[in-house]
Design goal:
This protein is of the alpha/beta class. The protein contains eleven helices and 16 strands. It has a single domain, classed as Purple Acid Phosphatase, chain A, domain 2, CATH 3.60.21. About 30% of the residues lie in helices and about 20% in strands. Strands 1, 4, 5, 14, 15 and 16 form a six-stranded mixed beta sheet that branches. The relative contact order is 0.15.
Amino acid sequence: MYLDPARGYDLIGDVHGCAHSLERLLAQLGYQRQAGVWRHPRRMALFLGDIIDRGPHIREALHLVHDMVAAGQALCIMGNHEYNALGWVTPAPEGSRRQFVREHTPRHKRLLQQTLEQFEGHPGDWHDFLAWFYQLPLFIDAGRFRLVHACWDGGLIEGLRKQYPDGRIDPAFVQASAVPGSFANRVFERLLRGTDMRLPQGLTLTSEEGFSRAFFRTKFWEDNPQTYGDVVFQPDALPEDVASLPLTPTDKGRLLQYGPDQPMLFVGHYWRRGRPAPIRANLACLDYSAVMAGKLVAYRLDEEQQIDADKFVWVEVDPPEAPR
């Protein structure tokens, strides 16, 4: 995807319906609202997906981002929550045991609940936004830097490019993702949800949101991890006795690596905490749990070749977002 080298870029992490905080962040970055659209004379915003779900102003956030994209002031890639919304309304392939790509289970409905409720009186809007989600590429590769919501898997991305050169998929691809292990399923699971690993000894964990899980999210850039604690990458820490367990050769073989010699990569998705900072010189996560009273974070990218710790910008998000 072509990006104008004469412009600077402001990369923005998961918004999750925090529209008012997004306006404060854009203002802090020097954008101004003109003719209904947030604009900057020399810069462009690049959103890392997950504009919807959980937050109090989802419809407003979508309109803000959509209008910036339509006016050439921003680009936005797809997050797993936009994909989930498409899967919620897309029929499963013939012969499938499920009715929709995203099964209508209580857990899945709970994740989408805030979005569905906030669009109840605006069905036309929701229909239009679902169509717009297909305009969101799954990745951006600008040569010197890359954007993907959760994990850069070079092999899967090359395979995807052969079918969809600009990274924008279609309803047939979403429908195909309902088949476990299919190429489409692997693309969405890896690029939009990242890498994970089963907990040892049949253990399960309960997240802050009350979901029980047998898997945990893993880092995809560690060169020589030795224990489960070395690869965990999620807000819910592993119990210390589990974290100290050694990884088996099979576990190590399942890990993906993003080498330090590859282009700068920016991701969202992982609910980080604390002061925004690079993970390493060519990797940064910009999701700092905005909707959980964390930070809505941007990175101001110019001509640098390595990520600069001094170029993170953020606003604190009050619980909930303060009304105007």
